[in-house]
Amino acid sequence: MPEHLRRSRIHTPGCDWNYTDSCADELIELKRVDRDAYEVLAALIIDAIDVGLDVDDNGGDTYTVPVGWHVDRQRHFSRKPMPWLGELKAEGTWGRQVDYRLYFLETKIAPDGEADAILGSSCPAGKGVAGDYDQGGQTGDMLDAMWRGIKWCEAHDPVRLWRVWE
Fold this sequence. Notes:
By secondary structure, the chain is of the alpha+beta class. It has one domain (17-162). The protein has four helices and seven strands, in the order E-H-H-E-H-E-E-E-E-H-E. Strands 1, 2, 3, 4, 5, 6 and 7 form a seven-stranded mixed β-sheet that branches.
């Protein structure tokens, strides 16, 4: 994978975070059903803002950038560029056999500018682990997160641009 795709604004402190309305609602629900998993995600966001996440942790237990390799670009993004997508991770607690993901895009105002904000676009209910893992379902969650991000960017005033797969 090209190194520039593995670099993210979450590695540099001081980045603003925004959330789609749906993602904010999903985080509230996660806090209700699994407070520990919610707090792991919240701590990762705070660390990203305060100090930046460690580049060497990419692909480990805390986050992966980018994700979405199995999304069919030609089928789902024929008219708009496919967003670059990342995920923060939290394991389910209290014996739950699920992992939680907070999918995010990087956004900016200026076409030639660097990403200046992170957009939390989706926090699905959780995915199974081990034998219960469903790659197709997770890819569908990523596709949904991408489109939520696009819609948020286009509705934002001023309109924001999303980082694209290059």
